[in-house]
Amino acid sequence: MKPPPFDYHCPETLDEALALLAEHGEAAKVLAGGQSLVPMLNLRAVHPEVLIDINRLPGLDHVRIEDGELRIGALARHRAVLESPAVREASPLMAAAYPYVSHGPIRNRGTLCGNLCHNDPASEMPAVALASDAEMMLQSASGARTVGAEEFFTGTLSTAAGADELLVEVRVPQAPAGQGAAFHEVSPRKGDFAYVAVGAVVSLSGGACSGARIVCAGVGDGPHRARAAEDALEGAAPGEGAFRQAAAAAADSIDPGEDFHADADYRRDLVRSLTRRALADAASRCH
Ligand SMILES: Cc1cc2nc3c(=O)[nH]c(=O)nc-3n(C[C@H](O)[C@H](O)[C@H](O)COP(=O)(O)OP(=O)(O)OC[C@H]3O[C@@H](n4cnc5c(N)ncnc54)[C@H](O)[C@@H]3O)c2cc1C
After folding, report:
1. Contact partners, residue 5, CB within 8 Å, separation at least 6
2. Residue-range domains of the chain with CATH
3. Is the CB of 101 under 6 A from ligand 1?
4. By the number of CB atoms within 10 A of the CB, which of 24, 171, 187, 194 ranks highest?
């Protein structure tokens, strides 16, 4: 199918882009990598009157560590993030999850910020952002604001970003030294969206778990943090028994939907086994 008709703007500066967003608001859509937006246009799932292509905006393709944070700009492509030594250094969880994000040609165009703004419930990076206390730097013609991941992801394909706002950068606090991370998923083919994905980070101190984050994708209308499972691990000796108990709590914490890929029981089983595996791997990577 072909997309519905739209006006196309390709601003050369951030100010110009923000002015266009202010002018057109709900009638406009930002075009970044186009790897989610273009299929949705072609399926006529969205009908923007105006597309604002941000690909010519300067200075937004960075992936760097600054002031203890990993900072990734709106035009950093998936491939640049996947291959970045800064990501491996600052966010072992993001580094572990990125190989699951889509296929080569899509990674060449798609952006991390576009992925976060799209917020597909089966997408890996919103879950990583939630586990990592990432902050979204939003900018509009009337000012800038910062929104934490907890508030940013508001539901299926929806976020707290206003129609006149651009996500200019995502900031991820650098992971504490010694923390271990792992990410696992089950999908129909490598690079496809997950049926279920689970990410875990674990910190150990004096032979006990001193902190854990467990997040899931594909189990509801956005990324899910399994807090009861995290609580179950607090102070526990890391090992098969504790990981199984936490995995059971994670499975109990979700209320997954059904679709033609997987029913709710299968998704719960996947959360249980992927959580156990992710925790064991994360703990083994603590140093
Ligand atoms: C075959 C296929 C397989 C895929 N597999 C996966 C997968 O396994 N996991 C996964 O997570 N993703 C997957 N994707 C999606 C891919 O990761 C997209 O690149 C990503 O979801 C969107 O990034 P984009 O830069 O292409 O954004 P676009 O498609 O350009 O935009 C997506 C949405 O975000 C908005 N937007 C984009 N950038 C900004 C910004 N800076 N500020 C405000 N709004 C913005 C747009 O207006 C639009 O609503 C797949 C895509 C395809 C086609």
Report:
1. none
2. 7-52 (3.30.43.10), 63-173 (3.30.465.10), 180-284 (3.30.390.50)
3. yes
4. 194
Phi/psi at 220 (nearest 5 deg)?
Answer: 180, -145
Per-residue pLDDT of the chain (287 residues; tens, 9 = 90+): 789 999 999 999 999 999 999 999 999 999 999 999 999 999 999 999 999 999 999 999 999 999 999 999 999 999 999 999 999 999 999 999 999 999 999 999 999 999 999 999 999 999 999 999 999 999 999 999 999 999 999 999 999 999 999 999 999 999 999 999 999 999 988 888 899 999 999 999 999 999 999 999 999 999 999 999 999 999 999 999 999 999 999 999 999 988 888 899 999 999 999 999 999 999 999 98
Q: Are 97 and 125 in contact (CB under 8 A)?
A: yes
What is the value of pTM for the model shown? 0.97
Q: Measure the CA angle with vertex 57, ends 4 and 76; round to 5°.
A: 90
DSSP-assigned letter for residue 54:
-
Strands (E), the chain: 7-9, 28-31, 50-53, 63-66, 69-73, 135-140, 143-148, 153-155, 158-159, 166-173, 180-186, 196-205, 208-217, 224-225
Which of 10, 14, 36 has most ligand 1 atoms within 8 Å of CB, for mutation? 36
The length of the chain, given as a count of residues = 287
**Ligand 1 neighbour 73 (Cβ under 6 A):** no
Q: Which residue do the tokens 């917020």 mark?
A: 119
Identify the three-state secondary structure at position 73.
strand
| Geometric angle at alpha carbon 52, from 69 and 35, rounded to 5° | 70
Index of the ligand 1 atom closest to the CA of residue 32: 30
In angstroms, rounded to a whole number, what is the distance separating the alpha carbons of residues 28 and 76? 22
